[in-house]
């Protein structure tokens, strides 16, 4: 009896914690959060339909053998009570356009049909839109977004850190030109309706991007924006040039607006946010000061190094205060390559935009994902933000790919 | 007779003390190598990075018996898609071909006896034997 009452007390406590402390998140005044779902699996990107049904793409199939999870909150209490799923293959990308749902594996993109209730009608027989993309372990995940004309943009990450002759090896030179760039290290564009496309049918839309996981179409500028994961291990391979502390701050994680044919400079340069310059990579003869990448873009926004931007979302709704309209939310997974210095990230950031351009410094919007003990080791983090979606009512959803939590963040006037 | 017993006991005590001392020294040396070469990716807690860098803490192959494989991975690096305890890790591991036999032994002793790991220490002779295995 004593044990039972203790258990009930614990349950009550857990419930009240969930309600009062915003599912453990730290948010700006006026915002609140609920744990929309938990332990659904390794939830990478998320997408939502116009009725508020949320879909998550899992990196690996979960215990129920599903790799796409469908979540519905019919009673509107901020917690999904109907959770189902389908699909067997792991992946990252997911996108909903009307009653069509796109999902990616690490080498292909599939298209599913949804019915009026947002239920999938062809769970085992999707159309294969894109196939046979490079998936060579490193940076293999394929993020996707669509433009209003129905073109689909796919990130094909570079299967390398800095295009060295021997990847991640001390003293190995950068290859010139980098042979990876013909088929990876950029964004590829395909027709969102045609089946069985691959490199021959697609087009390299933008290049010089080591690995993009966050990308979104901006309706104000009618153009593609991406966030890049900067290179690792400057101190490991060039200890005489970079200290541990310098490596922890270099290079910046970057946001770009990518128009057709644009080049962001990888692997030849990285962006130094202190000198505010594109610096020649040491693998290509750089010394930490020599500049390079004359024809490469400068980033629109530079974030602290190694925080790993996993998702980018331009806010279209009216629920949040006016300053958030058209601004960018970025989910940061949390760093590992700042070690031995403390890790950073594990939060959702916000960048205000005006007329399609950044209009102020970036700020932390939602924090506390790593857990109260602030143990920011990648393995020890309670949650690692990975995907973002905006509901039809303007609420913001954040997915976590470590334990499989989905957070719903709302604003009340 | 008593002095003989005393001598034997002291000898054993001395040997034990010497071993513990040697282990502590090896652990300390191994830790130093770990911090300069391994920590950046495998992390201070030995936990690695999910999906990217394999964990060493509680990893079956680190505390396992195949010392030759561990020596090979450290010396030549690693870039294969092989699951470790059911998970895949995507990043290529840097080779450390310059580590001497005693350094390899110290490093292996350290990673096999840090965090939650508790496995046998590795001797220079074991490293040398491992190197002969292909």
Name its key features.
heterodimer; A: 413 residues; 4-stranded antiparallel beta sheet; 3 helices; globular; B: mainly alpha; 4 helices; 0% strand
Description:
- The complex is a heterodimer of chains A (413) and B (134).
- By secondary structure, chain A is mostly beta strands.
- Chain A has three helices and 28 strands.
- The longest helix of chain A is centred in the first third of the chain and has 19 residues.
- About 3% of the residues of chain A have low confidence.
- Chain B is built from four helices and no strands.
- In chain B, α1 packs across α3.
- The longest helix of chain B has 41 residues.
- The radius of gyration of chain B is 17 Å and the shape is elongated.
- The interface between A and B is medium-sized, with 23 and 25 residues.
Alpha carbon gap, first and last residue of chain A: 44 Å
Describe the global form of chain B.
elongated
What is the CA–CA distance across the termini of chain B?
Answer: 51 Å
- Helix/strand-derived class of chain A? mainly beta
Low-confidence stretches of chain B: none
Map the helices and strands.
The complex is a heterodimer of chains A (413) and B (134).
Chain A: H1 2-20, E1 31-37, E2 43-48, E3 54-58, E4 68-72, E5 82-86, E6 94-97, E7 100-104, E8 109-113, E9 127-130, E10 144-146, E11 151-156, E12 186-191, E13 203-207, E14 212-218, E15 223-228, H2 234-237, H3 244-249, E16 253-258, E17 269-272, E18 277-280, E19 301-303, E20 309-314, E21 328-332, E22 347-351, E23 353-354, E24 357-358, E25 363-366, E26 385-390, E27 396-400, E28 406-411
Chain B: H1 2-42, H2 67-76, H3 101-112, H4 124-132
At a glance:
Helix content of chain A is 7%, strand content 33%. By secondary structure, chain A is mostly beta strands.
């Amino acid at each position: 009896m004593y044990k039972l009452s203790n258990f009930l007390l614990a349950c009550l406590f857990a419930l009240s914690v969930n309600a009062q402390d915003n599912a453990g998140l730290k948010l700006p005044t006026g915002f609140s959060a609920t744990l929309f779902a938990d332990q659904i699996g390794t939830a990478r990107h998320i997408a939502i339909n116009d009725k508020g049904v949320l879909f998550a793409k899992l990196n690996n199939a979960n215990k129920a053998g599903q790799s796409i999870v469908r979540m519905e909150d019919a009673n509107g209490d901020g917690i999904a009570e109907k959770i189902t799923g389908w699909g067997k293959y792991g992946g990252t990308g997911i996108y909903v356009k009307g009653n069509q749902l796109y999902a990616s594996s690490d080498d292909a993109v599939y298209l599913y049909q949804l019915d009026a209730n947002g239920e999938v009608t062809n769970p085992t027989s999707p159309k294969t839109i894109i196939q046979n993309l490079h998936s060579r372990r490193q940076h293999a995940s394929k993020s996707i977004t669509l433009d209003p004309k129905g073109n689909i943009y796919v990130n094909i990450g570079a299967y390398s850190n800095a295009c060295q002759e021997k990847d991640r090896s001390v003293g190995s030179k950068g290859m010139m030109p980098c042979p990876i760039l013909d088929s990876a290290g950029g964004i590829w564009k395909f027709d969102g309706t045609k089946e069985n496309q691959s490199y021959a049918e697609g087009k390299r839309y933008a290049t010089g991007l080591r690995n993009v996981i966050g990308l979104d179409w901006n309706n104000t500028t009618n153009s593609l924006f991406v966030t890049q994961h900067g290179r690792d291990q400057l101190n490991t391979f060039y200890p005489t040039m970079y200290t541990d502390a310098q490596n922890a701050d270099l290079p910046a994680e970057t946001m770009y607006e990518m128009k057709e044919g644009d080049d962001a400079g990888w692997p030849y340069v990285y962006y130094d946010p202190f000198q505010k310059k594109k610096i020649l990579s040491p693998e290509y003869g750089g010394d930490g000061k020599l500049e390079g990448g004359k024809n490469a873009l400068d980033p629109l926004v530079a974030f602290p190094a190694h925080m790993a931007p996993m998702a980018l979302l331009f806010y279209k709704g009216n629920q949040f205060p006016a300053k958030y309209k058209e601004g960018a939310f970025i989910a940061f997974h949390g760093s590992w390559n700042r070690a031995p210095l403390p890790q950073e990230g594990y939060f959702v950031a916000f960048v205000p935009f005006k007329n399609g351009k950044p209009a102020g410094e970036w700020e932390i919007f939602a924090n506390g994902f790593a857990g109260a003990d602030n143990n920011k080791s990648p393995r020890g983090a309670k949650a690692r933000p990975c995907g973002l979606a905006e509901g039809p009512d303007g609420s913001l959803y954040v997915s976590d790919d470590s334990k499989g939590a989905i957070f719903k963040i709302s604003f009340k006037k | 007779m008593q002095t003989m017993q005393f001598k034997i006991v002291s000898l054993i005590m001395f040997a034990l003390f010497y071993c513990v001392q040697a282990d502590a020294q090896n652990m300390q040396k191994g830790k130093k190598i770990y911090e300069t070469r391994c920590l950046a990716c495998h992390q201070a807690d030995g936990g690695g990075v999910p999906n990217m860098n394999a964990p060493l803490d509680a990893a079956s192959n680190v505390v396992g018996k195949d010392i030759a494989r561990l020596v090979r991975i450290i010396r030549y690096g690693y870039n294969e898609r092989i699951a470790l305890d059911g998970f895949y890790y995507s990043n290529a591991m840097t080779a450390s071909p310059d580590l001497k036999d005693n350094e390899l032994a110290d490093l292996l002793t350290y990673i096999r006896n840090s965090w939650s790991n508790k496995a046998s220490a590795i001797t220079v002779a074991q490293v040398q034997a491992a190197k002969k295995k292909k």
